Amino acid sequence: MSSTEEAVEARLGPVDQIPVGEGRAFLVGDEPVAVFRPRSGGLHALRAICPHRGGPLADGLVDGEVVMCPLHNHQFSLVDGSCATGADDVAAYTATEEDGELVVRLG
Amino acid sequence: MTQTAERPETEQENPSKTRLVVVGNGMSGARALEEILARGGGDTFAIEVFGDEPYGNYNRILLSEVLANAAGEAVDNEDADGEDELYLNPLDWYDENGITLHAGVRIVRIDRHAKVVYGDDGSVTPYDTLVLATGSRSFFPPMEGMWASKTELTPGVFGFRSLDDATSMLAHIAGDAAQRSSTLEKEHRTAVVIGGGLLGLEAAAGLQAHGVAVHVVHPTEVLMNQQLEAEASKVLRSKLEDMGMHLHLGVKTNEILTDEGRVSGVRFTDGSDLACDMVVVTAGIRPNIGLAMVSGLETQRAIVVDDKLRSVDDDSIFVVGECAQHRGEVYGVVGPLWEQAAVLADVVTGSNPHAEYHGSRLATKLKVAGVDVAQMGVKVPERSSDEFVQFSETGRGVYQTVVIRDGTLIGATLVGDVSKVAALTQAFDSRSALPEERIKLLFDLGSAADAASAADLPDDTQICNCNGVSKGDLVACVHDGAESVSACMAATRAGKGCGSCKGLVKEVVEAALGGAGAEDPAEHYYVPGIPLDKPTLMAEIRSRGLKSVSSVFAELAPDGKDHVGSKMGLTALLRMMWPDDHVDERDGRFINDRVHANIQRDGTFSVVPRMSGGVTSPDQLRRIADVADKHEIPMVKLTGGQRIDLLGVPKEKLQEVWADLDMPSGWAYGKSFRTVKTCVGTDFCRFGLGDSTTLGIDMEERYKGIEGPAKMKLAVSGCPRNCAESMVKDVGLVAIEGGQWQIYVGGAAGATIRKGDILATVDSHDEALRITGRFLQYYRENANWLERTYDFVPRMGLDHLIGVIVDDAEGIADELDARMQETVDRYADPWATDQTEATPGQFHDALPLVPLPQVPIRTSSSREGVSS
């Protein structure tokens, strides 16, 4: 999937547009990306669509380790997108903060 | 007969010994002594025993055999010594154990300050520890002709309680008859037994064995109603009648007729007479508590004791047996007496000073007039969820029932065939697992088939129908190392859909784990991420003043880590606990609660405005139609809760749709109070008994949006035709004749089907609102996360709920009402308050610019409305 594509980097504006403990969806190139900002710190990016039934991961509940899809409660690691509940894994991307700005890198 | 009451030798020899005095030498007093001696009490105590019957102690249970036994020698003290099993301990036994027995001395008063007891022979006996085992006596109902004087029964009238009673009866039958002519003898051959309980039937059987014609008079239709329910009693009744016993049921005795000072018959309350020459009164027993009362000990039905069997007033005084009242119960059969005696001895001797008695589960097995009867626990199902297995073979005189609650045997009755009593008693006492086919309890218990049901399922059987998890998936999970039910559920998501398969999941996993597996403490946590049950969690939150989800995790979670599956439950809990000042962390909410709409499979949302009681207006309908047109709502649908659902609204359009609707939120998305379904009630319906529409509207207006552990769906029906389906709602009301409302709770007709239980019948609209609110508040405070009322009500027990909510047994009704009122007062319509964004990007779409699996859009065809 997107991992085979060449690296795409996008500057997406201020980090503060993501409330602490939640996620928000962005478009990076053609790729829908959900970026999460857990309370325990850091930023994480996953493909925004749940591989199970297409649920919006950015709407999911988040803790320090996983996001839970709001449709059927599948859980995906924020770090590598792996699923602990039996669905396929989801692609993981890199999200960082640079000068207060959110930067997401695909690939 | 009275032995000396002077200082016992033992004490003179060992002045250092503690003085233990036992008042009462019946079965419980003697048993207590035996238990004390078995713990070495003979070395530490100087023991004196007072018994007002002039015998060694004897086994009262065998009195009926004494009576049935034509030979009356057992009565004679000397003959009985050492041989007859009637005597638990012969007189020698007291000597051998250094116990001083004062047989025939009645203790009349305790001086608790001086620590001495006064005997009716003038003796004064000091004690350090006193044991009261005064037992009970026959109850003689007030009745003309019963008494010859203040203390003497009319000749021919007998109790059936003591050895003296039994021997006098025997003398009356045999002795008198021998002295009389044969014609007079005939007259002495009819007995009336007043009271058809256990004792009465035993007396009746004993007398019948002597060839006496026996009439049993019992005030209800149910013989042995303490132990048996109506059907079981009927079987017993026909057996007894087959044996020639005359039964007068549902009949009361008014008067004992006498002729020349002797019994000549009885007169019933209907005025009819029955001639007889002896009357046995077995109308119940009364604990002997006179001594305790005059000595200033707390008595109610009997002497009130604590868990160490001490009088609640005096730590030096212990009470055991039928004269003891423990946690409201007074026991009249031997099993509990044995258990009490053991605890008492543990405490008195110090062999286990922490021993406590926590009440007994009653199980009786006996032979009534040759009929085997065994009974344990409850007689009949008490809750609608109790299982009841009944087997009746009246031709053979066999009747058997078992009552099961939550998979545990809580009662059994066996009449005629008691072959399964041992296995049943074991299951009853140990609360062990029961065979899936309950009938095996009565016919096939103990076969190797136990726990076979889950283990025998083929691997491809689908266990969880929501998430498509097979038995094989669960078993594989165990083989991969999962050690608990919750671990398997987390890994496979079995049981995480509607939840109705959880029991089966548990069985399969436990079978795969090889038996019960480890007790899974996580089962009791309120949320999985914090290892505390709800009451403990609430106490911690309150004492630490935690008002945000993040602070609860920080203080109470292992390593302070937050947990995704726990956030929603904690958010709901904090909103319930701190209606005024919880810290609103939006990330603790599920998406539905962040945007006040229900997420759909394509990431769009459904919008359901409140339409209280399902009553709408042309104006509302026009507005809804306009909104549907303007926003091109893909589907407009009527919900099961009598409202209108606008489906397929993108998140970013929600605020606009709300504004255009200009209606409040219907909360069709939360773990919250949803709707009140109503029928048309008295306004139009020709059958209506109560104004269900108004009550439903008022109820919804009052409790709208109140959050809880799970959703709450209500209904109000205006008559017992129940068109609003009140019996299958979390709370359902039904108007009945007389201006009253029945309030059902714990009903369901979704993933689980359950008929609600009647919590209360109230007299007014306002009271209906209040009781409903109080129940909901109690549910909010005590139910586990996601525990619907259909699980909560049976878990708490209907009796308990009635006690707390209707009868205010815990004195918390006012507090519950006040806390509910506080929540009601704090209500704000989320659609109005969130017209301005609460968090950045709150209504931004989470799936930008990507074609989604769309819900097919139907074209609506206009049809004639169908009224229901």
How would you characterize the overall build of this protein?
The complex is a heterodimer of chains A (107) and B (868). Chain A contains no helices and nine strands. With 107 residues, chain A is an all-beta fold. Chain A has one domain: 3-layer Sandwich (Rieske Iron-sulfur Protein), CATH 2.102.10.10. In chain A, the strands form two sheets. Chain A has a six-stranded antiparallel sheet with strand order 1-9-8-4-3-2, with no helix packed on it. Chain A has a three-stranded antiparallel sheet with strand order 5-6-7, with no helix packed on it. In chain A, strand 2 and strand 3 form a beta hairpin. The radius of gyration of chain A is 12 Å and the shape is globular. Chain B is of the alpha/beta class and 868 residues long. In chain B, the strands form eleven sheets. A six-stranded mixed sheet of chain B has the order 3-2-1-7-20-19. A five-stranded parallel sheet of chain B has the order 9-16-10-11-12, covered by helices on one side. In chain B, strands 22-23-26-25-24 form a five-stranded antiparallel sheet. Chain B is elongated. Chain B starts with 8 loop residues before the first helix and ends in a 35-residue tail after the last helix. Chains A and B meet through strand 2, strand 5 and strand 6 of A and helix 17 and helix 22 of B.
Topology of helices and strands:
The complex is a heterodimer of chains A (107) and B (868).
Chain A: E1 9-14, E2 23-28, E3 31-36, E4 44-47, E5 61-62, E6 66-68, E7 75-77, E8 92-98, E9 101-105
Antiparallel strand pairs in A: 1-9, 2-3, 3-4, 4-8, 5-6, 6-7, 8-9
Chain B: H1 9-13, E1 18-23, H2 27-38, H3 41-44, E2 45-51, H4 63-68, H5 77-80, H6 91-96, E3 100-103, E4 107-111, E5 116-119, E6 124-126, E7 129-132, E8 136-138, E9 157-158, H7 163-179, H8 182-187, E10 190-194, H9 198-209, E11 213-218, H10 230-242, E12 246-249, E13 253-259, E14 262-268, E15 273-275, E16 278-281, E17 285-287, H11 290-294, E18 303-305, E19 310-311, E20 314-319, E21 324-326, H12 334-349, E22 363-368, E23 371-377, E24 387-393, E25 398-405, E26 408-415, H13 421-430, H14 440-443, H15 452-456, E27 462-464, E28 469-470, H16 471-479, H17 485-492, H18 502-512, H19 534-544, H20 549-556, H21 567-577, H22 591-595, E29 598-599, E30 605-607, H23 618-630, E31 635-638, E32 644-649, H24 654-661, E33 673-678, H25 681-684, H26 692-703, E34 712-717, E35 731-736, E36 740-745, E37 748-749, E38 753-754, E39 757-762, H27 765-782, H28 789-796, H29 798-806, H30 813-825, H31 830-833
Parallel strand pairs in B: 1-2, 1-7, 2-3, 7-20, 9-16, 10-11, 10-16, 11-12, 18-21, 33-34, 34-35
Antiparallel strand pairs in B: 4-5, 5-6, 8-17, 13-14, 14-15, 19-20, 22-23, 23-26, 24-25, 25-26, 27-28, 29-30, 30-32, 31-32, 35-36, 36-39, 37-38
